[in-house]
Amino acid sequence: MRVPILKQGNYLIASIQDALTDTDLLQLQEELVQRVGAARTRGVMIDVTALDVMDSFASRTLRDLAHVIRLRGAETVIVGIQPEVAFTMVQLGLLLEGVTTALDLEEGLALLDQRTKGDARCDR
Amino acid sequence: MAEQTQFLTKQSLMREMGLTEQEIARRKAFLLFRDEDVEHLRGLHELAEKYADAVIEDFYDHLFAFEESREFFSDPAVLARVKAAQKQYFLRLTQGDYGTAYVEDRLRVGTAHERINLPLKLYLGAYSFYLQTIASHILQEHRNDPAQGLPIFLSFLKLVLMDMGLAIETYLHQRERTIRAQQEAIRELSTPVLQLRERLLLLPIIGIIDSQRAHQLTEQLLHSIRAHRAKVVVMDVTGVLAVDSAVANHLIQTVQASRLMGATVIITGLSADVAQTLVRLGVDLSMVQTVGDLQSGIEEAERLLGYQVVKAADEVG
User: Fold this and answer.
1) ipTM of this predicted structure
2) 0.80 surpassed by pTM
């Protein structure tokens, strides 16, 4: 399943709606990394609210994705990790080191606004 | 019906304490309580009946001589009832047949004393009076040949030792039951997650954390973070006196899981002992934000959330 990537101002929002295969994840990674450079993107938000499982591959891919996007000059926030998912991840040692997380889309947007405030390239 | 219920509880008490017929036999063997002892005791019965009333009177005179024991018998009606029960108890010592029914009766007596909170030292100490009285009566009977009295007295002593053992176990059993009930109560006390301000939760942890409680605590906290849309959580562990590595790791996992949900956790009130234990256990707390006391923790949380607390007077001025 392809993940739709929406543009909202200077942000890109990818909302994962269903369990993804490893191929889907890699495709998402590829697409996001490409688009970050293309459209003056300052922030990327990945919404995982609908996921009730996050395995080590998904977790590692998202972490790498966030690090790559930072190198491309944008911030990444992962939002909507469910309580059970969060605890399972921690027990598996999947800590998303160095990645910003937020409760939901609203929080994520507020966080991105805060992070990119005073940025010369930011229109807002 | 009532009698039947009582019978059942007695039965279950025996079962709970593991006093099966074989166990009673094992105890007797250990006490060297043999058939000839039963004979000796039976032989004393006539003597016991003859002196029972006098012994009981003397016994209560003895108890009344001490303030500690006196206060248990301030009510005359109670005293009369207790005396009757005591006489029964005394006579039962020499009635023979020291099997299941005997043990059951002794447990009943023990439970009754435990229920009125009679101190064990008085309960066991009172046997000294019995032993002395019985010894003098036996010697009186066998004054021509004291050597004959000794084995009889020893039989009596063995039985009293068995009674004492049962008494102590009844007390212990009741205490253990109380402890179990209290542990249950502590476990059932849910760990409250309180909203202190908008987006700020307080999680006070008090008492012993075992893995079950730690798990419950984590689940409750993570769900509360979502329900209250919390950004900062202050976890106060002032009331936690001891942690082991499992619990410490669990707390850290909780902190990390909270972070994945976008909330910052501040741990406050780590006592000197707990802090030292954590370091000795090699628990890595570097990624956990800790603040000395609850007040500072809340202040730090308010700062993170952008709150500033100002006194009303200062604001006006």
Assistant:
1) 0.84
2) no
